[in-house]
Design a protein that fits this description.
Elements (H helix, E strand, L loop, with lengths): L2 H14 L26 E11 L9 E11 L3 E7 L2 E2 L2 H12 L8 H9 L1 E3 L5 E8 L3 E4 L9 E13 L4 E12 L5 E14 L2 E8 L2 E10 L2 E3 L2
Parallel strand pairs: 5-13
Antiparallel strand pairs: 1-2, 1-12, 2-3, 3-6, 4-5, 6-7, 7-8, 8-9, 9-10, 10-11, 11-12
Length: 228
Amino acid sequence: MPVSRVVLGIQLALLFFGVAGSLADTAPEKAAERDFTKLDLSGEWYVLIHYKDKRSEDESLTKFKDFAWSIQQAEDRLVWVKYPYVLFDEELELVRRHAMTEHLPWEPDQGGWKSIREAIEVSSRAMTRKRLSGSVEEGFKSLSSLSAGGMNTLTFSRNWDVSFGESEVRIEIVDALSGTEGLAGMEEASVFEIQEQVASDELRGRWREETKHGTFRMVRTRERRVVK
């Protein structure tokens, strides 16, 4: 039997028996006593979300999605870059894709997390960059789009709002359509609430987007490589 099939079988078995663990089934532990207004988000991050969707045919299924963030935080601004596609080695990617197809709550094994903390590879495809202005005290907001159009022009905007509180950091990303009759006013918000720092390089919290609710973890990596 090929080694890759053996590896796939072992890792899928771990998923089924819960050794890997699901983030969505349990709430984050109570946050340690710390002031999140002093948190510096600067760095390269791998983000993994486990969630359930009330619109799914089977609401009990725990799904996942992952991506990378690159954040630069200064006193008066935030620069936030999202890389939707994180690239793994062939064997890990085989297990990851199968778990996504079967709606299994995948996450890297111990060796995978160690590798992620060292470096991650990302694709530049669909990469987005957002600049926010403000301060920790007042919050950071993205600049409004200057594009304008009439009623027959469809306009898409993505606005960011990041607020720092003592007990959590709240990140709200709102996608909106406007300008076309019948579609004007359509919005979808994605909200990340950082509520726990379990290590100097790892943050955890709650996530929601319309009918989807779950938990996430952010793990800082030492190096981000854009490979294509």
